[in-house]
Amino acid sequence: EAAWLASRRRGLGASDMANADTGAYGGGYAVVADKLGYDTDDNKNLGAKQRGHEWEQRIADAVHALTGLYVIGEQLQIISAANPVHRFTADGLLATTAEILGVDEADYVLEIKTKTQWVTGKRDYFYSQIQWQLHVTGFRRALLVIVSFTTDPATGAEIVEHIDFEWIDRDEYKIEQLVDLADRLWAHVE
Fold first, then answer.
1. What burial letters (b/e) apply to 152-173, b meaning 16+ CB within 10 Å?
2. In the chain, helix, strand, coil percent, each to 5?
3. Rounded distance, CA 90 to CA 100, Å?
4. Other C-beta atoms lying within 10 Å of the C-beta of residue 63
5. 141 in Cβ contact with 129 (< 8 Å)
6. What is the pTM of this model?
7. What angle do CA 46, 48, 54 make, to 5 degrees?
8. Beta strand 108-116 with 76-79: parallel, antiparallel or unpaired?
9. Beta-bridge partner residues of 51
10. What is the DSSP string of 71-107?
11. Residue of 89, 187, 78, 183 lying closest to 136 (CA atoms)
12. pLDDT (tens digit, 9 = 90+) per residue, 92-112?
């Protein structure tokens, strides 16, 4: 994990770009500060992150069962061939076959979000994040899966309340905006 965190600081990932684009979690200022080592609290939102990691495989299995697509490359860091500063860590790639030889043989990006029932999804944040992923991979589409959890009153256990699937198409205009923003952010880092 330490190597992964260090690698994240050498480029701009999908969460970084969504933060900067939407102003979430301190916006672009916090992204630059993080890259420069000034804001290195990797434990932010730890409970939500932990839930996401714990459920990721089960959600991937559900995606396969419901779509017929295979989930490959979970937690794979993908770096753009055109600009190594442009990168992201994939929740998964989707392919029509169970085995692929490289990222280019996948068909779609998979983005998984988990939330509690009373929290609304951050649609603009998710959209920016996914457009950055489509930019880095060159793919045309991504599947956004949002899993809502509730608490079982009898046991106190967290259980799945609802699963939403949404296909997001590539938006060249938004990608242009994000690339321009990334160039400005990275100029500050340098």
1. eeeeeeeeeeeeeeeebebbee
2. 45, 25, 30
3. 15
4. 22
5. no
6. 0.89
7. 100
8. unpaired
9. none
10. EE-TTEEEE-SS-TTBEEEESEEEESSS--SSGGG--
11. 78
12. 999 999 988 888 899 999 999
